[in-house]
Amino acid sequence: MNFKSLIVFGLLSIYQLSAQEMIQFQGSSQSPDLICPGIKKSNTTPPQQPSDFEIVYSLPDDEEIEAMKKNKQDSSNQLQMQLTKQKNGGPYRVGLWGDSHSAANFITEELLKSIGLDTDSALPSFIPPSMGRPGVRLPIRKYCQGSGWQFNYSYTGVNAELYGPALLKLNTKIPNSYLWIDFRSKNNNTNQLKKLNILFSKTTHASAKLGVQIDGRAEEIIDVNNLQASHLMIQGDSLFGVIKIRLIEGAISIDGFVPTYNIEPKLFMDTFGIPGATVKGWQSTQKSYIDSLKIPMNYDLIVLEYGTNEGNQAPFDSKAYKQMLRESLQNFRSIYPNASCILMGPTDRGIWYKKTYTKGKKKLVKTEQLPDFLKYSKIHQEITQIQKDVGNDFSCSSWSWQQAMGGLGGAYTWIKSNPPLMAKDLIHLTVQGYQETAKILSKDMDLSNLITTKEPNDWVIDDPSLPKNPPWRNK
């Protein structure tokens, strides 16, 4: 029989919970496979407009690319990192925050492979509510999402609200909006969840009621406004995998999901990539708010991968960027003061130029003036240098993604490689490009033996070149 009760719950795994409502269930069952309801999409493809001209987009030739390499950075990209004994024990915890480059999870997955792990042995300790966001791949088996859901993003600064680690919120006020999530691994259908904590933000709307269903059992009705600290804990006497959430009335805002597993993984790996994001998103966080979420905070290593979207602002203002980065890192360090930190600079970036031909003939009519092929490359180089300078004040090492690609003009070399490592937009990478990036980063961090030869709870990363008493600690 299913039942629901209000309790005061004490210690949960590695962190403390305040009074909250809990859904308990009895009896084992195999989690059902999710079959999403059909949602018809309208055909919005615009009609083709007739044209008397044909536009052909071109890249610089090999000689021009070779000339660009004269500007190649000569300094080593090797991170000066040491592996030292961790005091607290437990699985090593890594967090990767960033923009569209990290959102698809390709870098994360390849990093795990480089240290001998996979998505079954390295699990997330916090799952962001980014379901339905284009460009995002989450470490879950599947999800189904109805219409009516919207995002608030911390980096936009539009809404004067505070954000949790996800740096976004998933909201709806449309009755019967649903979100179904299969938290099992992509590789197998084994249930791993022992408990799940759903984090809700308080809203100013009328009392919100939810329907919550676990592995096909009867739906439980929850009044979100009655939840103390906005936590809903789900647990039972058997493992589970599939949760279905349905808004009955009111409005809800979800901060994320905190799983507890039946078997402790070898490593916790959390990825928080948001397409379009900038480091400014960290200015909408606050330690007191994150403390109220009662989530694990002991990250050993944090990688902040930003800079591409900042460099796309025209004109790029280096002084304004430096100030924004400093304020963001100040807030970041107030929340994660002890984590080892790496600032991962933007990729190299290229520019296409176009030639116009008369339609049906290959007679050149017009060639636009050749652009500065290194326009964005130079901006990204400047951003990486600023990250290095400012990051040093906040005990953050710097890693140049651009340098890993060969320096200025590396985007053109990567797109001409076989297979191409650069995407056709000359901004993003292909899957193979992100995988190659992870291999280089892992080598530069000397991570290859971190898991394969030592127990994961034996190590923590430290950069001896950084100050031991940085200025930010005294502010």
Question: Could you explain the architecture of this structure?
Answer:
It contains 10 helices and 25 strands. The protein has 475 residues and is α+β, with helices and mostly antiparallel strands. It has one domain: Rossmann fold, CATH 3.40.50.1110. The strands form 6 sheets. It has a 7-stranded mixed β-sheet with strand order 1-4-16-13-18-11-10, with no helix packed on it. Strands 8-19-7-20-21-24 form a 6-stranded parallel β-sheet. It has a 5-stranded antiparallel β-sheet with strand order 9-12-17-14-15, with no helix packed on it. A hairpin with a 5-residue loop joins strand 22 and strand 23. Helix 3 packs across helix 10 and helix 6 packs across helix 7. The chain is globular, with a radius of gyration of 24 Å. The N terminus is likely disordered.
Present the secondary structure layout.
Blueprint: E1 3-7, E2 11-12, E3 15-16, E4 20-25, E5 53-58, H1 62-68, E6 82-85, E7 92-98, H2 100-103, H3 106-114, E8 122-123, E9 142-145, E10 150-153, E11 168-172, E12 178-182, E13 193-201, E14 209-214, E15 220-223, E16 231-240, E17 242-249, E18 252-261, E19 267-273, H4 287-292, E20 301-305, H5 308-311, H6 318-335, E21 340-344, E22 353-358, E23 364-367, H7 375-393, E24 396-399, H8 401-404, H9 410-415, H10 431-445, E25 459-462
Helix pairs in contact: 3-10, 6-7
